[in-house]
Design a protein that fits this description.
It is built from seven helices and four strands, in the order αααβαβαβαβα. It is of the alpha/beta class. The chain is globular. The relative contact order is 0.10.
Length: 212
Amino acid sequence: MSKYQLSCADCGSRRCSRLKGEFPEFCLTTSLDEEEKSAVKDKYNSEETHRVMQAAAEVEGRYYGKLTRVEETLKFASILGAKKIGIASCTGLIDEARIFTRIARARGFEVVCVLCKVGSFDKAEMGIPDEVKLNPGEFEASCNPLMQAHILNREKTDLNVAIGLCVGHDAIFNKYSNSLVTTLIAKDRVLAHNPAAALYTSKSYYRKLLKP
């Protein structure tokens, strides 16, 4: 018996998208009871969730393979009826955030951009050891995803867009944002913000990732 809990990654047949053929014993779809399925499905009846699902389906159905993620994000915002977009950006991706702001404004959106270092303080104030700083012994501003969420909540944005937030900081921002959050750029400093490249090259350049 495998020491791992088997799940979708161990199947990969995608029969759940067609509901045809044989399913493995550990299939998460066939193991659901009707009460479970019904309880989750009922949540889509809430006004906001239903509205978001409808908007997402329209973007997918009308523009699949036709629009970039930048364009899809703004189409999604438009279909939702969003007027004010918040951007939570890493300082290292300020150029990208500025370009996205220009594009969004050109399409009629009001935009508020908040960088991760707004309201910053030294990492030491968070109890972060000096030895794990990038520059030990010096002031090193901590990212402040809570402040990013606070400001965008205060501004009452209709939709927030994350651009290059650090792993973990993005989780905090998403948790405390009052508005829906969609990610435009996932930060990967090594791979030019294309984290999927490590997966695509896991049998060649990045095969070290598969070693215990």
